[in-house]
Design brief:
Layout lengths: L12 E3 L8 H9 L4 E8 H5 L3 H5 L10 E6 L3 H14 L6 E6 L4 H4 L11 H14 L4 E8 L7 H10 L4 E8 L10 H10 L4 E4 L5 H11 L3 E4 L9 H10 L8 H18 L8 H8 L6 H10 L3 H13 L17
Parallel strand pairs: 1-2, 1-8, 2-3, 3-4, 4-5, 5-6, 6-7, 7-8
Helix pairs in contact: 4-6, 6-7, 7-8, 9-10, 11-12, 11-14
The structure holds flavin mononucleotide.
């Protein structure tokens, strides 16, 4: 089974699956900033099986964000493999890989034996992976954590079982399920997984800059890097990491440019998704503007706004208060484009 072509780089940098965040619009924006590969938000295999329209919407992948993987979560080999076949049939040529979520810590997921609960039952996870690989015309990967808790750190054993079951690659987030996001992601455990298997292993956890990307690479020897929170409101991180990997200079965007990207994000969202969903943009806008003067007031206004048009007006007005690089503000006083 061949791996998806990671565009063009020897060390691919990918956008992590993030439920409620890495939708088609955000994936496209990150791809435009040089991210090599994108993952959909996690999609319930059972939800697909029972035909949920909202669930199906999550696997819509546009040209601009390819290559892309669909991430599924589930624990029943029959349902997961049937859904893989259905996805591969319906989206043939559009999707490069299927990823199975084996790291989600949320109780409503683990309570069903899904996500990181699979790390507590390596045989069950292996049977799931075997069934998925057997059913799939596409490569199948998985994403998991260091272990369930400090007393059960089994990422190495788990990785070996996944490789034996046919996983084409894997991503390790260097924290236990119990840790959620506390403490530091453990690069050591990722390095151990890299040494234990021969399929590509991607390192994940706390990559927030070019420097931390280099550190992840150096400490783990991973084949590629996965970025989640570092991309929130900051798709520029992919430009920054690429520059760091290539030893090229990088100048961070000005506040004006960040705000212009926020506006573009909001516009694309309103064009491509149901405008009634505009409240989903609130968190993105708050991340883009973090640390900017007046951002607290903007956040308050954005949270109170009642229409997509009102939201766009607020964003343009806020950008008018920022200085563009060249000192001239082309949109000064316009309020809207
Ligand atoms: C809001 C949010 C949603 C997430 N959703 C998913 C998901 O759907 N599937 C998944 O495998 N991981 C999910 N994760 C975990 C991330 O993919 C990643 O493993 C984790 O955030 C560590 O990487 P980071 O330090 O770069 O953020 C999510 C993380 C966040 C913050």
């Amino acid at each position: 089974m061949t791996l998806p072509v990671f565009k063009k780089h020897s060390v691919p940098v990918v956008l992590a699956p993030m439920a409620g965040i890495s939708d088609t619009v955000f994936r496209r924006i990150c791809a435009e900033h040089g991210c090599d590969f994108t993952y959909t938000e996690m999609v319930s295999a059972k939800g697909l099986f029972y035909g949920g329209k909202k669930t199906r919407e999550l696997i819509r992948v546009s040209d601009a964000e390819r290559p892309a993987a669909v991430q599924l979560f589930g624990s029943e080999p029959g349902i997961v493999s049937d859904m893989i076949k259905a996805i591969a049939d319906e989206y043939s040529g559009e999707i490069a890989m299927i990823d199975i979520n084996m790291g989600c810590p949320m109780p409503k997921i683990t309570g069903n034996g899904e996500g990181s609960a699979l790390m507590r039952d390596v045989n069950k996870a292996a049977r799931l992976m075997e069934a998925a690989v057997k059913a799939s015309p596409l490569p199948v990967s998985c994403k998991f954590r260091k272990g369930w808790d400090e007393a059960h750190v089994n990422a190495v054993e788990f990785a070996r079982a996944m490789e034996q079951s046919g996983a084409a690659m894997m991503t390790v987030h260097g924290r236990t399920r119990e840790q959620l996001y506390q403490g530091q992601a453990d690069r050591e455990i990722i390095a151990e997984v890299v040494s234990a298997v021969s399929v590509p292993v991607f390192g994940n956890g706390d990559v927030f800059s070019g420097e931390s990307a280099l550190n992840m690479l150096e400490k783990t020897g991973c084949a590629g890097l996965m970025v989640a929170r570092g991309a929130q409101g900051n798709p520029f991180i992919f430009d920054e990491i690429r520059a760091a990997l290539e030893g090229a200079p990088y100048s961070p965007p000005s506040e004006y440019d960040r705000m212009s990207e926020a506006i573009r994000h909001a516009r694309l969202f309103l064009e491509e998704k149901d405008p009634k969903l505009f409240p989903e943009l609130r968190k993105h806008m708050s991340w883009y503007t973090k640390g900017m003067r007046g951002s607290t007031e903007l956040r308050r206004a954005v949270n109170a706004v009642r229409s997509p048009e009102g939201l766009m007006k607020l964003l343009y007005r806020f950008r008018d208060t920022l200085e563009p690089e060249n000192g001239e503000n082309p949109a000064e006083g316009c309020g809207e484009e």
